[in-house]
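hey m, so remember when u said the tokens were messed up on ur end? i reran from scratch. heres the input so u can diff it against urs
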Amino acid sequence: MRKLKLQELNRLSIPEYKDSNKLPIVVVLDNIRSGLNIGSFFRTGDAFRIEKIYLTGITATPPHREITKTAIGATESVDWAYVEDVVECVKQLKEQSFTIYGIEQTDSSVPLTNINESNSIHPVALVFGNEVNGLTDAILPLIDRSVEIEQFGTKHSLNVSVCAGICLWHFAAQLNRARRPDL
């Protein structure tokens, strides 16, 4: 066994990525305060070839030193937009027939493992909230489903960028098998 060299990984160039088919997934960042977390969202979004990231509220935008540090160039490949008001952003996505998943612990959350999007005809929006306060209360009525990752230790939550990696992998795995045989 040997580790592969970077050139052996056969990754897309940025222009090839821009022209490629994307999974019908967008991410909405609701007031994420850490540039390092934001950069991680870009890098993970690139890995799973998502359509777009929406940055809302106090969420910093590229170019930003901390975002650049963890994104490692993914701000150039993944499409993004800044929308000041998260409520307006989610409303616009609903009007475009996105199924809205709020990644949050609520009294009606379902475990991520119970979510099956493999037969859905709608694109998916995953909304991630602030590191301390979670999702903005005003968007809770707009969310189609609240999802949480089951945990078995003493902590009440995961780091938001770790949560993103788990959630995006779950949704991407299902949608890749169902919708994008070319990926």
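this time it looks ok to me. The chain has a mean pLDDT of 94. if urs says something different then somethings off w ur setup not the seq
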